[in-house]
Design a protein that fits this description.
This protein is mainly alpha-helical and about 290 residues long. Helices cover about 75% and strands about 0% of the residues.
Amino acid sequence: MNETTEHTPHRIGSRPESFLQIAAYFIRVTLARAYVRVIGGQRELSWILGDTLLPFLSVAAYVMVYKAMGAPDEYTGFVVLGGILVTFWMHMIWSMGMQLFWEKEVGNLERFLMTPMPRSGLMLGMAVGGIWMTMTRAILIYVAAKLLFKIEFKVTEPWMALAVFLATMAALYGMGMTLASLFFMAGRGVFYGLGIMTEPMFFLGGFYFPVKHLGMFAAAGCALIPTTLGLDALRQTMLGAYDSGLLPPLVEFWILVGMAIVFTAVSVYAVDKLEQLGRERGKLVLRNQ
C-alpha cells in the first residue's frame, strides 16, 4: 500500500510537496490563467478595435495640435509613446484592477478559491496574459502612427530602453495586482472613482507632455505612478530627449525595479488578506456584497 502511494503520479488538484513540484505547479497555474487572456482577447473583434482605435484617435488629435503649433518633431514622438503607454495603463486599471470583481460577478471566484492553487500564480497569469494581449494593440498604434505621421524614433540606448520597458510593465502590473484586491473590497463604488480619475491620471502621468514641466515637486509626486517614470525614461532612451527628462534613465530604472518588488509583495499580502477576510465573514463570493 505504501509503495503504491509513494509511486502514484501527481494529479491535478492535489497539493505538490517538493520544491520542483511547487515551482512546476506555480508555472502551470500562471500559464493556464494567461492562456485565457491571450486567446480570449483575440476572439472578440470589438475589443481589439476599441482598445486600438480609440487610443489612436487621441494620439492623432495631440499630434495634429503639435503640428499646427509648429512644435519640434520630438513632441510627436512624445505623444506616440504616451499613447502606447495609455493602452497598458487602461488595461491595468479596467481589466487587471477590476478582474477579481468581475470574476465574483460571473461566479468564477468561488472556483478559484476552492482550487488548491497559489493565488499569486493566478494573479501573475492575469498580468502576463494582459501584457501580451495589450502588446498587440500597442504595436498596431505604433505602426499606424509611424506610417501616417512619419515619426522617426532614434533609439540611443536600445538595451536600456528594453530594460526600462520591462521594469515599467513589472511595476505597473504589480500595482494592478494590488489594486485588484482593493477594488474588490470597494465594490461597485470604485466605478465612480475610476471614471472621475481617468483624465487627471492622464495629466499626472505625463502621457502627452514631459512631466518635468509640472515642476520638480509636483513631478516627484507624479512619479509614484509607474508609467510616469517609465515613459520619461523611454522618451530619453528612444527619442534622445534628455533635456526634458525628470531623472537619468538608469535612476528611473532602479526606482521602477524597487516599485515592482514592493507592489508585488503587497499584492501577495493583499490577496491572502482578502481570502482570510472571506473565511471570517463568509461573504467573499456573494454577488453585490
